[in-house]
Design brief:
Elements: E1 2-3, E2 6-7, E3 9-10, E4 13-15, E5 22-25, H1 47-52, H2 55-59, E6 73-77, E7 85-89, E8 91-93, E9 101-103, H3 113-120, H4 131-134, E10 138-141, E11 144-147, E12 163-169, H5 170-173, H6 175-197, H7 201-206, H8 244-253
Length: 266
């Protein structure tokens, strides 16, 4: 998206025009069966240690056959992380859907164990839940904020694909997720731009005030810049315990910015 002929950049993050698109969709629903959790998620280097710090509490939310901490993660070599190794959450056979996988941290009630621990221990949002999980269906890669347009979800079971009563900008539907990307002040600036121009691309170009490009990320913004090979690839009919990394490689070939699987938002 451009304004005054310049790209819209907020806190060093370029905002894609898809973020302003209006749609009659719903945010994440408590009754959803978590179709977006069919895979695992690639994480930043600091996230696995933070998860392991709460291992004992996490196990209280998982069946006994998932208590082996050595099975919680998978790794692969990566040029996009400081360590040279990228770690993702593993997948297991989904007990609720035949011939499907799910993230190892997805509980039988279709809630995330990591999110539950974060809530119970008052760790704030997103707590120990991985960043790239927490922002879905919003997407962030190479400092570009956009919408995940390619992850395949089941239209029948993915309640976020079910219609809402009115159309709203995508960044408003997924407000909490957008704040994780831009920070509260950055989100306020984004909303100001949309309100000022009614979200019309041509008017955005003529808006009087131009946000500062290249500004360092706000303190309440998640550090970014990591290239994500996959975000939310939810492969269908994959074998039980399929390695997320293999799913991710397959997704990458399709140019799928999938995240919840190292194979692939709240």
């Amino acid at each position: 998206m451009k304004k005054n002929g310049k790209k819209i950049v907020i806190n060093g993050i370029r905002v894609d025009k898809s973020v302003f698109r209006k749609a009659a969709l719903r945010p994440c629903d408590p009754d959803c069966i978590a179709d977006c959790c069919s895979g695992g998620v690639w994480m930043t280097d600091d996230e696995p240690p933070r998860i392991m710090k709460w291992a004992k509490a996490i196990k209280r939310h998982l069946p006994k056959d998932r208590h082996d901490e050595t099975q919680w993660f998978v790794t692969r070599k990566s040029k996009d992380t400081p360590s040279g190794i990228e770690t993702g959450t593993n997948t297991v056979e989904d007990p609720a859907r035949e011939d499907e996988t799910c993230c190892i941290f997805l509980r039988s009630d279709r809630k995330c164990a990591l999110q539950a621990v974060s809530r119970d221990r008052k760790l704030g949002w997103p707590g120990i839940k991985p960043f790239y999980c927490s922002i879905y269906p919003l997407y962030l890669e190479n400092d570009v904020f956009s919408i995940d347009e390619t992850t395949e979800l089941d239209e029948e079971t993915a309640l976020c694909l079910h219609g809402a009563d009115e159309k709203r900008p995508m960044f408003e539907i997924y407000r909490d997720e957008a704040i994780l990307i831009l920070g509260k002040k950055g989100y306020a600036e984004l909303k100001r731009l949309a309100d000022e121009t009614k979200g019309t691309p041509s008017k955005l170009k003529k808006a009087a005030k131009t946000p500062a490009a290249g500004k360092p990320a706000a303190k309440d913004t998640k550090p970014t810049g990591k290239k994500v090979a996959a975000r939310k690839a939810a492969p269908k009919n994959v074998a039980a315990k399929a390695a997320p990394a293999k799913q991710a490689d397959k997704a990458a070939k399709k140019k799928t910015p999938a995240g919840k699987a190292p194979a692939k938002r709240k």
